[in-house]
User: Fold this.
Amino acid sequence: MKKKLKFALFALNSESGIAMTTSRKRWSAKTDEIKEVAKFCDKYFDYIFSVQRWLGFGGKTDPAGLTYESSNFISALSLITKKIKLIVTMHTSIIHPTHAARIMSTIDQFSNGRSLLNVVCGWNEKEFKMFNANYQPNSNAFKQGEEWIKIFKGILSKKKISFSGKFFRVKNAQSKPVLYKNRNPQIISAAFSPTGRIFAIKNCDILVTMFSDIAALKHQVQIVKRQAKNNKKKFQVFALCHIVCKKTDNEAIKYYDEYSRKNADKIAIQNFSNIIAKNPKNKILKSIQKKNMQKMAGGIGSYPIIGSPKKVIDELNKINNSGVDGVVVSFLNFKDEVKFFTQKVLSVINK
Ligand SMILES: Cc1cc2nc3c(=O)[nH]c(=O)nc-3n(C[C@H](O)[C@H](O)[C@H](O)COP(=O)(O)O)c2cc1C
Assistant:
């Protein structure tokens, strides 16, 4: 491999992870198992990427219905890990930026500077209704997100911030502490729509993207990195995948087939697709997800990497060669599968 590919473990704090399946093997997000996986990953992975979900996707199993609140979850992990970076997810219409700055600085101090923030500007309208939050149409949601980030970054740059915009008005907003050793916050976005991408490149440091095949990923990375360069920005792109790694290709395919085809939670998948379909600008994402029920069941439509260690390493090499900086990966059952993957794939790649 040319450069080191970074690895982020995704959705450990959510029941079913990102799978939508009735399989008994699905992740049940028991606190003891989460702690065990997090401590293990501390030595081998680069990031733990937590999601923020307030509702599950219904169906027979209600995937993500049980989700530990992202900032509290990461705060807990920061005390039982030493090295791994930790990603909190927040919705800009639910958490006020002044509160967010205080949450992130607290976590950053206790983790010695290991926190990152994934911002979500708008997504699941039903969740927003739980908070009486204003659900904005796509472009407004990102305008609101931009004001949010201005205040958030301003506070963390040790200033007193007064700001009057279309969505926020704050007077003398500040936080003590700021981030560990006064460092700047690192912000992630997983926006997919054209407006979302412009927002991400302008205001964030890392974009996480979905993709249908390696050629499409390469194309996306080229466009995004070119735009970032035009904005004179150091910018990273990560790719979202779900992985089944077993001793042989056949064993992996069988395992994948059992949970993502025979036992797909079809109603949950339909509900999830309906949330995506609400954003008419998100055509590419919609087509990725529509095309393949199995990919939806396997990991909300993300790219499947299924096979023996050799096959998985080959695929990850191809992804690395597409120009991405890292991968965000998920497994059906983190506890059962992450150790084998680490021994047979991560330790080989990282040699
Ligand atoms: C890797 C990844 C992580 C995400 N995490 C969350 C999350 O925790 N909570 C949430 O509501 N949305 C989450 N999303 C949704 C995105 O942030 C974004 O809102 C969605 O892809 C729609 O983008 P768009 O509004 O630009 O079309 C995530 C998406 C991806 C690909």
About this structure: The first strand starts at residue 6 and ends at 10. The first helix runs from residue 31 to 44. Residues 51-53, 89, 120, 122-124, 138, 190-193, 196, 208, 210, 240, 279, 282, 328 surround flavin mononucleotide (CB under 6 Å). The radius of gyration is 19 Å.
